[in-house]
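seq as requested:
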Amino acid sequence: MKANKHLFMRKDTSAQVGIGTLIIFIAMVLVAAVAAAVLIQTSGVLQQKAQTTGKQTTQEISSNIQVKSVEGLRANNVSGANLSSTVDLLKLKIGLNVGSSDVDMNQIVVTITDGSSTNDLVYANNEKLYGTAMIDFSSSSPSTNLKTMIESKTGSNNNAGIFFTLEKIRDEDESFSQSEPVMNTGDLVTMYIGTASSLANTSEYTDLYTVSPVIIDSGLNLVPRTEVQILLTPEAGATTTADFVTPSTYGVKETVSLYP
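struct tokens:
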């Protein structure tokens, strides 16, 4: 016969007690709390940076200026019988892409080159580059501003070599003014860039577009077959480029279509 098996339950009521165990437990809780706080803070910072980056990226992509057309005008005498051999003023029609953010044209930098000379232009009311505004826009009209740009100087600098001017064509919400030239979607403005050459800077040519100034040399020379590049760099958003080659001859045209 098999021997009877007796089952015994071990009674062990001893456990870890005392201040040491309590210290270890509190330390574990504190470490977990600190780790959680660090993770929460890090995730918050990353979220904020992601939102800022996303906003800036959206603005860079959507804020885009469109150059819809470029026309060139030639200086002439008062009777219009004698035209300059160069393009002496550019008219750019400027708009914004659909969904674009508002663009402050006062912060636009326009770079134009004829392959030999380059002018970096700012809006004529921009006081940050040259210290004082070229024109008092509170009392000036676009045509007066244009006239001043073509025929005047700021210090030793010819205005046509450092400034551009603007005139609104369409502005439904009246966001655009000469002193605060802010464009939004749907707006259409004309940008004037002086390109008068030394050839036009004579007493023979005393009329250009709607003004009759003594034309000042811009430093550019837009004769026929000139490769011209225009860059519009906004405060935020993509740079817009308009490249074209002037016609092989200007003929008897006072206004020449250049772009597109």
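The helical segments are 19-62, 127-130, 142-151.
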